[in-house]
Amino acid sequence: MTARFDVAVVGLGAMGSAALAFLAARGVKAIGFDAYFPAHALSSSHGDSRLIRLGYFEDPSYVPLLKRAYQNWRSLEARLRTDILTITGVLQIGAPDGKIVSGTRSSCELHGLAHEALDKAEMARRFPAFQLDDHEIGLLDPQGGYLRPEAAVMGYLKLAAEDGAVLHFGEKVTAVEPDDAGVTIVSDTGQYRVKKIVVATGSWIAELVPQLRRAAVPIRQVVAWYQPQDGFATQPQRMPCFLRDEGAEGSYFGFPAIGVDGVKIGRHAHFREPIDPNQPNPPVNEADLALLDGFIRKRVPGAAGLRVKATTCRYTMLPSEDFLLDHMPGEKNVVVASPCSGHGFKFTSVIGEILADLAIDGQTDLPIDAFSFARI
Ligand SMILES: Cc1cc2nc3c(=O)[nH]c(=O)nc-3n(C[C@H](O)[C@H](O)[C@H](O)COP(=O)(O)OP(=O)(O)OC[C@H]3O[C@@H](n4cnc5c(N)ncnc54)[C@H](O)[C@@H]3O)c2cc1C
C-alpha cells in the first residue's frame, strides 16, 4: 500500500492537537485520529483552566522549554485572534524550605526570573483570599497564570485543518504496525499507510505503546468549583493562581474566580488511585468532597461558599513524574508523547513543535534529553 499521508497523529488531546497543527504548518500531509471528540470528558485536557508558571520548582531544566512554550502560546493567540493565556501571577505558598517554595526560588535565581517573597502580613494585605500559617510565605511568580484548555485544543485543530490536515473524529486506532518504510495503521473502520506516526493517546498510551504498560499509570483526579463568599478578594486581579505545599499531605492547586462557577481547586494526584482508562471515570465521592471542602475552608476561606460543581479527570503518571518525548525504541517512524504526569498542559505549545520536529526531521534542537525512553 502506498503512503497517502506523511504523518498521522493518533490522539488529538492537548499533545496531539498541537502536534498536528505544527505538522500541517510545516507543509506535510497530515491526518489526525481521535477515538472521541477532542477535549472530551474522558480525556485529560478539559476543565476550563490549566496553570502555567515560569519558575519551575520541579526542576530548573524545564525553564528553557517553558520560555518557548510562552512564545508559542502567544503565536497561537495571534493566529486565532483569541485569548488562551491570561497572566494573573502564580503564588507558591508554603514553608520557605519546602519543596515548592524553595524549588521555585532556586529555579528563578538560576534563570534570573522575576519573583517576590511575601510574608504572612504582606500576603494578607495584597492577597487577602489566602490563609497562611505564621512561618509560611507566598513566593509570587509574576509571569504565571492560566490557560484555557478547550480553546487551545480546538484552536490547534482549527489551524491544523486550515493548513490542510485531515481530521477523523470518533475513529479509534486499534493497531500500529511500523516497518522500515513507514507505518500501517488499523482503526475500527479502516486501514491507512503513512510514513511516520505520532502516538499521543493520553491515558490509553500503553495500548499502542506496549513498552509503557508498567510505567504509565492512569490515576483518578478530582477538581471542584466554589462560588466565593468574598467576591472582591477572589477576583483574578487580587487572587493569583496558586500552588500550596502541605508537606507530607502533598500539594494543592487553584484558580481565582474566572467564570460563573467561581474558584477551582484540586489536590495534585488526589488519592493516587489507579484507574482503567476504558471504564468511565469513577464518580466523585464523599471522601473526595471532604478533602477539597476541608482545604478550601482552611486555606482559602473567602472562597469557601457554595460548592457548585465537582468532577473527575485523569492524570497519567510516569515513575519519575516527568515527560516522555522520544522515538519508540528501535522504531524510527514512531514518535511517542506521554500524557506528562499531571503537569504537561502548559508545555503543549512547545511539545507540539517538538513532536513535529521528531516526526519530520528525526530530531529537535529543543532540550528533550531528559525525556527519553532510556530514562524510564
Ligand atoms: C484535572 C487536571 C488538572 C491538570 N492541571 C494541569 C495544570 O494546571 N497545568 C499543567 O500544565 N497540566 C495540568 N494537567 C495535565 C495536563 O492537562 C495533561 O498533561 C494533558 O492534558 C495531557 O494531554 P494528552 O493529549 O496527552 O491526553 P488527552 O487529553 O487524554 O488526549 C488523548 C486523546 O487520545 C485519544 N485516544 C486515545 N486512544 C486512542 C486511539 N487508540 N485512537 C484514537 N484516539 C485515541 C483520546 O480520545 C484523547 O482525546 C492537569 C490534568 C488534569 C486531569
UniProtKB/TrEMBL annotation:
Top EC group: oxidoreductase
The EC number(s) this enzyme carries: 1.5.3.2
Keyword Oxidoreductase: yes
One Pfam family per UniProt: DAO
MF terms in GO: N-methyl-L-amino-acid oxidase activity
SUPFAM superfamilies, A to Z: FAD-linked reductases, C-terminal domain (SSF54373), FAD/NAD(P)-binding domain (SSF51905)
Cofactor: FAD
Coiled-coil region: none
Organism: Rhizobium mesosinicum
Chain segments annotated as transmembrane: none
Entry keyword set: FAD, Flavoprotein, Oxidoreductase
Residue span, FAD dependent oxidoreductase domain: 6-358
Name listed for the protein in its UniProt record: N-methyl-L-tryptophan oxidase
